[in-house]
Amino acid sequence: MNEHKTDIGEWRSLGGAPVGDGDDDTDAVFAHVSDLHGQLTQRYQVYYDNPTSAPDFDFGDDDRVVERGGGVSLLAAKLAELRGDHDVCTLMSGDTFHGSAVTTYTDGRAMLDPINEHVAPDIYVPGNWDYSNEAAEDGNFVELMDGLDAPVLANNLYDWETDERLYDAYRLLEVGGLSVGVVGMTNVYVDRMAPAFSEGKYRFGKHPALLEASAQAAREDGADVVVAVTEIGLPWMVQAAKDCASVDVMFSAHTHEYTYDPVVIEETETVVVESGMGEALGRVDLRVRDGEIQFRHHLYCLTEDGEHTPEPDADAAETVEAARAPFFEDDPGFERGAGTLDRPLDTVVGRTEEPLYRQSFLESAWNTLFNDALQAHFDTDLAVSHGFRYGTAIPPGEVTLGELYTFFPMTAPVARGVAYGQQLTSHMEEFLEDNFTPYPYDQEDGRVRNFSSNVEVTVDPTAKRGRRLVEMRIDGETIDPEETYSVATFRRPGDPERDLGNCGFPFRDVEVEDGTIPVDVIVGYLEEHSPVDYEVMGLIETADDGGRAQNTPADGPYPFIQPGVDYADGEAYCETALIPRGNAFPEEGRNRTR
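RE: above sequence
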């Protein structure tokens, strides 16, 4: 008898139909850890009251709560609890070795002992940020992978020179009496996101057929069940679930979504789950009855005082504190890139009246604050930054140096340049195309480009490609394509000399502050303006005659995937929902004016 039966959902077929419980025996239990992003200790995160898939929290009159939890010691304790009752296969999706000051200044190495000794995954699949240290001369991706005790899987990662696959495509594991084929696929967008992470070293296979081929190979090798572990993103994986019939369960990561209810693809009888940002633990139970694979699922949000949250594992906590201790000395003395850490991470550097976080699509209070800090530092017309997904939440109150590094853990130098209005609007249009395309395999970022608070943008998700940007205003004035504007941002490693902030076009009059990183700029801004009071201000809005777009998961149905248009005729519009198989779009929801 499973003493944790109340933790999990009801048994269903892979096509979603409920099945009679019969016996309650479980053949195999899978635990999924994803997107840890260097967060060794408990931290705050924002959770949303989604209309169709929400955590079991008391939201009161709000649509969000900020809770503290997670960290390696809680993950280790929950895994130990599950392992005490079941034969558990622990699967880990990457973005582990990046995301905090500790990972930044140790090149990710500080994560190895906590992961190997206490999370102890059975399979590891790298994520896009696991390659980030390759942007420096002493990049060490392969060294980090070699330091893991778990097998590394990546069916689409090849050596730049030889085109040989670096890691196995799949492994067969015996789990609870089942022969399980585990297929691993790393992020397909690394070379587009940041060429410096891979150029001259790694190539990435991108076609979803690679996933199907590996799954078929695992079945031919004797697998009773095939699961895929990836770090590509929920939209991509849901579409792949419709196109790759040989996979039974897909464990997704990268987009930091919380599938409290799994995504079930009836056509192929495939289940897709994604397990948040490392402070959550996904669980999928499988059993085979009369030749039918059945499943049940639960996503544990390991928040303080949560119903299913155990006491932290003491040994794991000790390992974590040993890794973090040097960062809390009076003068840590770490250097990396353009950054120097000369103060302990618990140094209070400011205060905030409202919680700060960036788990949103169009606009977030954190990204606006960051851009305002850049603009003030350089006294420019505007500032622009990538709408990154990673980063914990900061509740109202004191802000520490360590918390700032969780939002921007890169030690790239800040910079400024001059751009034409046409360059800025074309750049924004490209990001809208990426985010509102109806073809999930083309979606990369999952967040719209963000600017300082003096920039307002109107978009139309229903418009044809190249026409989704309706208007862009700076200080209330429509941007002039022939006018020049001074722009504050940062210099990414490996980018062309005149390309700043991932904008993809040449700036004029480029100035780089080699000794100043984004965290330094934010500290200076907080020292002058604390307490800061930032909320979502509607800086990016949809046109009155266009379709809407969700800013947070609380704004619409789950899954949290944006709409797009059919490029075939430029008119058909798919309201916020998963894209149907074959990209067959509904007739309603047309906008013929753009």
